[in-house]
Amino acid sequence: MTEALLSGTPTVKTERMGPVGRIRLDRPAKLNAVDLEMAEGIARVLEAWEEDPEITLLLLDSTSPRAFCSGGDLRALSDLIRVKGPEAGVRKITRVYGVMQQIAAYSKPIVSLLDGIAMGGGIGLGGHVPYRVVTERSVLAMPETGIGITPDAGGSWLLAQMPGLSGLRLALLGERMNGAQAVQNGFADYLLPSESLPDLVRQIVTQPVPDLLAALAQPVPLAPEPSLDACYNAPDLAQVLQNLEADGSEEARQDIEALSRLCPFSLQVTWAAWHRARTLETLDDTFAQETTLVGHLMHRPDFLEGVRAKLIDKDNAPRWQPGTLDAVNPDEVARCFQRL
């Protein structure tokens, strides 16, 4: 039974399927980019179903196979900051983070279908629930250093849990993962063929979720040993670059090239944030750190410049301030960890 008005927004559809409450993101023209309207619509549904004894399980997915959620609506956020200032942007994104934490702490189990693109805010919506499903169409990433901020939406918690220094490398570079890699890296739990998703939706009403997912899931091999971990085992990013130069491999060369394109200040903040996240005890602690960092970074020019270069003018030629890693003031990086 469809409950069209429960969310209060056309971007969030809901459906009751027996004991399962289905929440569907429905903003396909924007690849389901999450804005405050969508987040608050999800929150209204969660609140309504929290006390509903007939709903025992939630299913969170998308109406489009192209994307679960491509991230935050960065163009709208940058427009807001240009008109009303960074404080308005910080207030809005903080509320969106709160809904992500509400999902993560929900009292009833949630299955998220991270089919298609799931990046940034998409990880925040679907990456912190008990059952996370990906397919061969899935593309996951935390690409924030390319737009002048730092991994957020709880993504730095997942990156910090990865073995060795592989999470640090992903945090810095924002590389994309396919479905199998997402399972290997702890961003998802089950890899299913996309053609099995209709069967999953149909059978989830009557079958125990762990048994159903185990029956439909494809095996995922263990992750290969990271080849560049030794390069990232360094006291700072300057030494990382020296290590990559000395390594001389094609993979190392590609990392050097990628790092040269990303926001220098964001890279330095992300370096410090990842190491601090390794010491944090809970997802909520990590959200608190991320919220503080993003609040500071939205007061800097790099965020608006990154969105301009990536999403508005699409020239992919951002003019970062400062333009190099060695020009970043470490005292300014340290201040980003102080609450606003």
Automatic annotation (TrEMBL):
<keyword id="KW-0378">Hydrolase</keyword>
<dbReference type="InterPro" id="IPR045004">
    <property type="entry name" value="ECH_dom"/>
</dbReference>
<dbReference type="GO" id="GO:0006574">
    <property type="term" value="P:L-valine catabolic process"/>
</dbReference>
<dbReference type="Pfam" id="PF16113">
    <property type="entry name" value="ECH_2"/>
</dbReference>
<dbReference type="GO" id="GO:0003860">
    <property type="term" value="F:3-hydroxyisobutyryl-CoA hydrolase activity"/>
</dbReference>
<dbReference type="InterPro" id="IPR029045">
    <property type="entry name" value="ClpP/crotonase-like_dom_sf"/>
</dbReference>
<feature type="domain" description="Enoyl-CoA hydratase/isomerase">
    <location>
        <begin position="20"/>
        <end position="337"/>
    </location>
</feature>
<protein>
    <recommendedName>
        <fullName>3-hydroxyisobutyryl-CoA hydrolase</fullName>
        <ecNumber>3.1.2.4</ecNumber>
    </recommendedName>
</protein>
<dbReference type="InterPro" id="IPR032259">
    <property type="entry name" value="HIBYL-CoA-H"/>
</dbReference>
